[in-house]
Protein 1
Amino acid sequence: MKKIDETKHVESNKFQVILFTVLIFLLLTLLVLVIYLSFTGTNIFEKSKALSEKVPFVSQLFDRDDENKQENSILKFQEQINKVEAELSERQEEIIKLENLIDSRDKTIARNELEKQQLEMEIEELRAAQEINKRAFLDIIKTYETIPPKKAAPIISKMGDEDALKILSSIKTDKLAAILEQLTPEDAARFTKLLASKSSTNEGG
């Protein structure tokens, strides 16, 4: 029984030795082949791929790997396109907003400029009217200084106090005294009081 066990053990050891010898031989052969191909400038990976393509199962594995790489690159490229399109859309929206803002400001500036021009025209018209009124008033004063006090007094007495006061305060002193003499005592007293009040107000201002 012991001899049988020893025999089996010896056979097992021989098998292992043969197996290791074969493996070492294959590794050495492979190493020599790799060194030779490297020296000759042959691409080992391309050669292995070319050889594998001749084997149906292995070539399918390579084809699937290539297809997966292509699909992944296409997906990545599509993602980049979508990202660029989204950025372009955002930029376009910003440009439209800025254009609208500029357009609104331009309209506001144009409206303000138009209002300014209208105000300037109104001021010029008022100044012109004021000048006309001033000239007309001066003509009225000259008229009252020219006509006899006897004719001027009845006209002034029928005027309102404000208009009468403007005329009386603008004519010469001698003409004023002559017109007041032609008024009734009540009107003369009232206008004298108004003239004194206006004079004191002007002096105080």
Protein 2
Amino acid sequence: MNASSAAGQLAKLDRDAAASVLVKLKSRQASAILSEMDSNTAAEIAGRIVQKTAAGTNAPPA
């Protein structure tokens, strides 16, 4: 699936779910997908990714 299509699909998901999917991808793939999203949506998801990686887990933030 190309980045634009993936961005459209992930943008429809819960932000935590989208972040969980993106952290499992290679950083270039995740970056390409985020760059295709609306900037506000991408920022929300990127924030969730930072929370997940800072906590050292893929579990949803508390």
